[in-house]
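Lab notes, practical 5.
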Amino acid sequence: MPPPPLTCVLFDFAWTLFAGDPDTWVRGAAQAIGRPVADGEPAAISAAYMDRLRTTATDPAHLARDLDPSVYDAAISVVLTGIPGVTPDFAAALAATHMTSLAPYADVASTFKTLKTLGVRIGVVSNIGCDLRPAFTRNGLDGFVDAFVLSYEVGFVKPDPAIWKAALHALRADPAETVMVGDHPAGDGGAVVAGIAALVLPQVASPLEPRGLDHVVALVHGRARKS
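Output from the prediction step:
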Protein backbone atom coordinates (compact mmCIF):
# COMPACT_ATOMS: atom_id res chain seq x y z
CA MET A 1 0.00 0.00 0.00
CA PRO A 2 1.47 3.41 -0.95
CA PRO A 3 2.03 5.96 1.84
CA PRO A 4 -0.74 8.51 2.36
CA PRO A 5 -0.29 12.07 1.10
CA LEU A 6 1.47 14.52 3.39
CA THR A 7 -0.99 16.93 4.97
CA CYS A 8 1.27 18.51 7.59
CA VAL A 9 4.91 19.68 7.66
CA LEU A 10 6.69 20.47 10.92
CA PHE A 11 9.76 22.70 10.73
CA ASP A 12 12.57 23.33 13.17
CA PHE A 13 13.35 27.04 13.61
CA ALA A 14 17.04 27.92 13.94
CA TRP A 15 19.23 26.95 10.97
CA THR A 16 16.24 25.34 9.28
CA LEU A 17 13.96 28.32 8.62
CA PHE A 18 15.96 31.24 10.06
CA ALA A 19 19.60 32.11 10.59
CA GLY A 20 21.57 35.18 11.49
CA ASP A 21 23.68 36.84 8.83
CA PRO A 22 27.15 36.88 10.46
CA ASP A 23 28.09 40.38 9.32
CA THR A 24 24.78 41.95 10.31
CA TRP A 25 24.74 40.29 13.73
CA VAL A 26 28.37 40.46 14.84
CA ARG A 27 29.21 43.87 13.38
CA GLY A 28 25.99 45.36 14.71
CA ALA A 29 26.67 44.10 18.24
CA ALA A 30 30.29 45.26 18.08
CA GLN A 31 29.25 48.71 16.91
CA ALA A 32 26.86 49.01 19.86
CA ILE A 33 29.78 48.77 22.30
CA GLY A 34 32.40 50.51 20.16
CA ARG A 35 34.40 47.35 19.52
CA PRO A 36 36.41 46.91 16.30
CA VAL A 37 35.83 43.78 14.24
CA ALA A 38 38.67 41.94 12.53
CA ASP A 39 38.37 40.44 9.06
CA GLY A 40 36.79 37.02 9.25
CA GLU A 41 35.65 37.50 12.84
CA PRO A 42 31.89 37.66 12.10
CA ALA A 43 31.97 34.31 10.30
CA ALA A 44 34.14 32.71 13.00
CA ILE A 45 31.97 33.89 15.90
CA SER A 46 28.74 32.93 14.14
CA ALA A 47 30.08 29.46 13.27
CA ALA A 48 31.32 28.88 16.82
CA TYR A 49 27.96 29.93 18.27
CA MET A 50 26.06 27.61 15.93
CA ASP A 51 28.40 24.71 16.68
CA ARG A 52 28.15 25.18 20.47
CA LEU A 53 24.36 25.36 20.44
CA ARG A 54 24.03 22.33 18.17
CA THR A 55 26.52 20.32 20.22
CA THR A 56 24.51 20.85 23.41
CA ALA A 57 21.05 20.77 21.81
CA THR A 58 20.16 17.33 23.20
CA ASP A 59 22.52 17.31 26.19
CA PRO A 60 20.46 16.73 29.37
CA ALA A 61 22.71 19.14 31.26
CA HIS A 62 21.64 21.98 28.96
CA LEU A 63 17.98 21.19 28.34
CA ALA A 64 16.84 23.50 31.16
CA ARG A 65 17.70 26.51 29.01
CA ASP A 66 14.96 25.56 26.56
CA LEU A 67 12.33 25.17 29.27
CA ASP A 68 12.78 28.39 31.23
CA PRO A 69 13.25 31.87 29.68
CA SER A 70 15.31 33.09 32.64
CA VAL A 71 17.67 30.13 32.34
CA TYR A 72 17.77 30.54 28.55
CA ASP A 73 19.06 34.11 28.69
CA ALA A 74 21.84 33.18 31.11
CA ALA A 75 22.77 30.04 29.17
CA ILE A 76 23.08 31.90 25.87
CA SER A 77 25.41 34.40 27.53
CA VAL A 78 27.57 31.54 28.82
CA VAL A 79 27.73 30.01 25.34
CA LEU A 80 28.80 33.32 23.83
CA THR A 81 31.46 34.12 26.44
CA GLY A 82 32.98 30.71 25.78
CA ILE A 83 33.83 31.78 22.22
CA PRO A 84 37.43 33.02 21.84
CA GLY A 85 37.58 36.80 21.65
CA VAL A 86 34.08 37.37 23.05
CA THR A 87 34.24 39.40 26.25
CA PRO A 88 31.28 39.65 28.67
CA ASP A 89 30.17 43.04 27.32
CA PHE A 90 30.42 41.81 23.73
CA ALA A 91 28.51 38.65 24.67
CA ALA A 92 25.75 40.79 26.19
CA ALA A 93 25.48 42.84 23.00
CA LEU A 94 25.43 39.70 20.84
CA ALA A 95 22.75 38.10 23.02
CA ALA A 96 20.62 41.24 22.97
CA THR A 97 20.64 41.49 19.17
CA HIS A 98 20.65 37.86 18.09
CA MET A 99 16.90 37.27 17.77
CA THR A 100 16.30 40.56 15.94
CA SER A 101 19.15 39.82 13.52
CA LEU A 102 17.64 36.52 12.39
CA ALA A 103 16.27 36.35 8.86
CA PRO A 104 14.50 33.62 6.91
CA TYR A 105 16.47 31.65 4.36
CA ALA A 106 15.93 32.73 0.77
CA ASP A 107 13.47 29.94 -0.06
CA VAL A 108 11.31 29.96 3.09
CA ALA A 109 8.58 32.33 1.87
CA SER A 110 8.16 30.58 -1.48
CA THR A 111 8.07 27.17 0.21
CA PHE A 112 5.45 28.28 2.71
CA LYS A 113 3.31 29.73 -0.09
CA THR A 114 3.55 26.52 -2.11
CA LEU A 115 2.67 24.33 0.86
CA LYS A 116 -0.37 26.42 1.72
CA THR A 117 -1.49 26.33 -1.93
CA LEU A 118 -1.32 22.54 -1.69
CA GLY A 119 -3.44 22.59 1.46
CA VAL A 120 -0.62 21.49 3.77
CA ARG A 121 -0.68 22.61 7.41
CA ILE A 122 2.55 24.11 8.76
CA GLY A 123 3.91 23.84 12.28
CA VAL A 124 7.10 25.15 13.87
CA VAL A 125 8.60 22.90 16.56
CA SER A 126 11.56 24.40 18.38
CA ASN A 127 13.73 23.86 21.43
CA ILE A 128 13.91 27.46 22.60
CA GLY A 129 13.53 29.47 25.77
CA CYS A 130 12.06 32.62 24.22
CA ASP A 131 9.20 33.59 21.94
CA LEU A 132 10.22 33.33 18.29
CA ARG A 133 6.88 34.48 16.83
CA PRO A 134 8.06 38.11 16.39
CA ALA A 135 10.69 36.91 13.90
CA PHE A 136 7.92 35.48 11.72
CA THR A 137 5.77 38.59 12.10
CA ARG A 138 8.64 40.92 11.14
CA ASN A 139 9.15 38.95 7.95
CA GLY A 140 5.49 38.53 7.01
CA LEU A 141 5.51 34.76 7.60
CA ASP A 142 3.32 34.42 10.68
CA GLY A 143 0.16 34.00 8.62
CA PHE A 144 1.48 30.80 7.06
CA VAL A 145 2.09 28.99 10.35
CA ASP A 146 -0.83 27.05 11.80
CA ALA A 147 0.83 26.28 15.14
CA PHE A 148 3.98 27.13 17.08
CA VAL A 149 5.09 24.39 19.46
CA LEU A 150 7.88 25.82 21.61
CA SER A 151 9.67 23.80 24.28
CA TYR A 152 9.39 26.43 27.01
CA GLU A 153 5.62 26.67 26.46
CA VAL A 154 4.76 22.96 26.23
CA GLY A 155 7.30 21.71 28.79
CA PHE A 156 9.06 19.20 26.54
CA VAL A 157 12.24 19.36 24.47
CA LYS A 158 13.28 17.47 21.37
CA PRO A 159 13.94 14.55 21.08
CA ASP A 160 11.27 13.77 23.71
CA PRO A 161 8.37 12.25 21.70
CA ALA A 162 5.99 14.33 23.83
CA ILE A 163 6.87 17.53 21.96
CA TRP A 164 5.86 16.00 18.63
CA LYS A 165 2.71 14.57 20.16
CA ALA A 166 1.91 18.11 21.30
CA ALA A 167 2.49 19.32 17.74
CA LEU A 168 0.27 16.62 16.25
CA HIS A 169 -2.46 17.54 18.72
CA ALA A 170 -2.16 21.28 18.00
CA LEU A 171 -2.39 20.67 14.25
CA ARG A 172 -4.89 17.79 14.43
CA ALA A 173 -2.41 15.87 12.30
CA ASP A 174 -1.86 12.18 11.64
CA PRO A 175 1.79 11.13 12.15
CA ALA A 176 1.64 9.01 9.00
CA GLU A 177 0.72 12.15 7.03
CA THR A 178 3.35 14.37 8.66
CA VAL A 179 7.05 15.05 8.09
CA MET A 180 9.50 16.82 10.40
CA VAL A 181 12.11 19.01 8.69
CA GLY A 182 15.22 20.08 10.56
CA ASP A 183 19.00 20.26 10.69
CA HIS A 184 19.86 18.17 13.76
CA PRO A 185 20.03 14.37 13.28
CA ALA A 186 19.43 13.53 16.94
CA GLY A 187 17.05 16.32 17.84
CA ASP A 188 14.90 16.67 14.73
CA GLY A 189 15.47 13.10 13.57
CA GLY A 190 13.99 11.97 16.88
CA ALA A 191 10.55 12.62 15.40
CA VAL A 192 10.60 9.06 14.08
CA VAL A 193 10.00 7.81 17.63
CA ALA A 194 6.61 9.53 17.45
CA GLY A 195 5.89 7.86 14.10
CA ILE A 196 6.75 10.96 12.07
CA ALA A 197 9.10 10.74 9.09
CA ALA A 198 12.07 13.10 9.34
CA LEU A 199 13.97 15.04 6.70
CA VAL A 200 17.33 16.29 8.02
CA LEU A 201 18.99 18.90 5.82
CA PRO A 202 22.73 19.68 5.63
CA GLN A 203 23.94 22.96 7.10
CA VAL A 204 23.59 26.28 5.27
CA ALA A 205 25.12 29.14 7.24
CA SER A 206 23.77 32.29 5.58
CA PRO A 207 20.07 33.16 5.33
CA LEU A 208 20.87 34.89 2.05
CA GLU A 209 21.14 31.43 0.48
CA PRO A 210 18.37 28.90 -0.27
CA ARG A 211 17.96 26.30 2.47
CA GLY A 212 17.15 23.40 0.17
CA LEU A 213 13.47 23.42 1.03
CA ASP A 214 12.67 22.36 -2.52
CA HIS A 215 13.22 18.85 -1.11
CA VAL A 216 10.18 19.37 1.11
CA VAL A 217 7.96 20.45 -1.78
CA ALA A 218 9.21 17.53 -3.89
CA LEU A 219 8.40 15.13 -1.06
CA VAL A 220 4.87 16.50 -0.74
CA HIS A 221 4.33 16.25 -4.50
CA GLY A 222 5.81 12.74 -4.57
CA ARG A 223 3.56 11.45 -1.82
CA ALA A 224 0.53 13.00 -3.53
CA ARG A 225 1.30 11.14 -6.77
CA LYS A 226 1.79 7.79 -5.00
CA SER A 227 -1.43 7.93 -2.98
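Observations recorded by the TA: The mean pLDDT is 92. Residues 8-18+103-226 form a domain with the Rossmann fold fold (CATH 3.40.50.1000).
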